[in-house]
């Protein structure tokens, strides 16, 4: 690294939300050197959450999802070209077009891509979609406008559930196939998964849990699908919502600790090499990064959240241009939200890092509640359904490692005063990925349920 951290050459690989916010922060922190952003897509950075919501509903055109720049960047943009390799000794990013870009410091923000349907021939049929890019959303919205007879959604995580919700709001017939026991169970556990299942069926979704799609049928154009229980359906469109793949293949020969689970970095976003030694000039942030968090027993977290992408980008950028004593850790409590089937779901903490849950406010029956999660006797997460006003209180409990179950505070009336198992499934039983992955952690569900005082 150069002696003066505010000049030199910084390269950001990944021109999406994380890369843009990092670049803005670099300039705001006084970086005056050369700044280059490399992006595989031809578009300037755009916002992805609207793609499965407003764009699919036809309320916002996909081309109008661009992210605003909060300040002038004075940056070199290399768009429409993929990073193909990294030479950490020569300090060069190798590009797929044969060129290379030299750097003094590097930020890896390559994010994720949609996990494809495993059969390439079936995936190539007309009518089979994934939803990750602006083009994906525009193409799918156009086909939904044409009024298909039935849409098949494979995977009932947040993206799959939001797609199903948009289709039902359009009045389309929808079948959802989920290998796990319920929608959203991989992110929120069994109690809220059961609520999500009832909600989808109440809105007319043909929800099939505990089954997999064994084949997509058609001859160049999708006509239907077969299921593992021996049944089949006719369908014009299939949307594959099987989670995300982290974009790390280009780092295979780099010597970094990078693989299918992401790029491992410390709490200050500095990447580790393959021997576990932290680097000083290579950083990682956003969906592609995995990092330790003290609130969750220093397990390595991988997050696919909008808020984390912004917060981690800002920490990484700050640390790239500040000497060691002035660097800061990325300790933001994870938070995300989803809108589906008339409900607004918001989460703070890591619900999958839990063994028990209590409905601290509201009611499952009314679909208006706050569920609080705990692990080993302390609060680790809270999820609100149409009742977000109290989440700030529970976020404070998470940040202070408050005892679980929580004492009455923001709670108005508890539906279940006794905590019950949170039923966090093993990710291997799901057909979609959780939005939060904790490497090497699976809560011990053999713990006894807390009994009320007698």
TrEMBL record:
Keyword Oxidoreductase attached: yes
Domain of life: Bacteria
Cofactor(s), by name: FAD
Keyword ATP-binding: no
Residue ranges occupied by any Reductase C-terminal domain in the UniProt entry: 336-408
Region of interest (Disordered), residue spans: 404-427
Keyword annotations of the record: FAD, Flavoprotein, Oxidoreductase
Cellular component GO terms, alphabetical: cytoplasm
Domain FAD/NAD(P)-binding: 9-313
Pfam families referenced in this protein's UniProt entry, alphabetically: Pyr_redox_2, Reductase_C
GO molecular function, one term: oxidoreductase activity, acting on NAD(P)H
This protein's name: FAD-dependent oxidoreductase
Naturally occurring in which organism (per UniProt): Streptomyces auratus AGR0001
């Amino acid at each position: 690294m150069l002696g003066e951290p505010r000049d030199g050459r910084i390269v950001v690989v990944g021109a999406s939300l994380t890369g843009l916010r990092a670049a803005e922060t670099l300039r705001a922190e006084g970086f005056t050197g050369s700044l280059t952003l490399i992006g595989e897509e031809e578009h300037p950075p755009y916002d992805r959450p609207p793609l499965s919501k407003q764009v699919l509903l036809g309320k916002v055109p996909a081309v109008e999802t661009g992210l605003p720049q909060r300040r002038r960047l004075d940056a070199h943009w290399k768009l429409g070209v993929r990073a193909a390799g990294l030479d950490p000794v020569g300090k060069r990013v190798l590009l797929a077009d044969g060129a290379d870009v030299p750097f003094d410091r590097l930020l890896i923000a390559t994010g994720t891509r949609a996990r494809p349907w495993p059969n390439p021939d079936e995936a190539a049929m007309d009518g089979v979609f994934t939803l990750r890019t602006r083009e994906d959303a525009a193409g799918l919205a156009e086909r939904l406008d044409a009024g298909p007879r039935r849409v098949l959604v494979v995977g009932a995580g947040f993206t799959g559930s939001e797609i199903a919700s948009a289709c039902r709001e359009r009045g389309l017939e929808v079948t959802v196939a989920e290998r796990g026991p319920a929608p959203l169970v991989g992110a929120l556990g069994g109690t809220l998964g059961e609520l999500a299942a009832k909600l989808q069926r109440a809105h007319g979704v043909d929800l099939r849990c505990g089954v997999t799609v064994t084949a997509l049928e058609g001859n160049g154009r999708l006509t239907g699908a077969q299921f593992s229980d021996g049944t089949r359906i006719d369908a014009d469109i299939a949307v594959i919502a099987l989670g995300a793949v982290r974009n790390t293949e280009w780092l295979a020969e780099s010597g970094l600790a990078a693989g299918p689970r992401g790029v491992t970095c410390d709490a200050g976003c500095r990447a580790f090499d393959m021997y576990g030694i932290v680097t000083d000039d290579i950083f990682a942030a956003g969906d592609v990064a995995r990092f330790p968090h003290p609130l969750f027993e220093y397990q390595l977290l991988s997050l696919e959240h909008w808020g984390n992408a912004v917060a981690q980008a800002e920490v990484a950028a700050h640390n790239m241009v500040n000497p060691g004593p002035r660097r800061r850790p990325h300790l933001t409590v994870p938070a995300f939200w989803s809108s589906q089937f008339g409900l607004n779901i918001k989460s703070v903490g890591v619900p999958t890092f839990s063994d028990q849950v209590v409905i601290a406010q509201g009611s499952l029956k009314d679909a208006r509640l706050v569920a609080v999660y705990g692990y080993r006797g302390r609060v680790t997460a809270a999820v609100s359904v149409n009742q977000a006003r109290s989440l700030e209180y529970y976020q404070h409990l998470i940040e202070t490692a408050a005892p679980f179950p929580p004492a009455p505070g923001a709670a108005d009336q508890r539906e279940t005063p006794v905590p019950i198992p949170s039923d966090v499934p093993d990710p291997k039983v799901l057909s979609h990925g959780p939005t939060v992955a904790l490497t090497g952690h699976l809560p011990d569900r053999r713990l006894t349920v807390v009994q009320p005082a007698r």
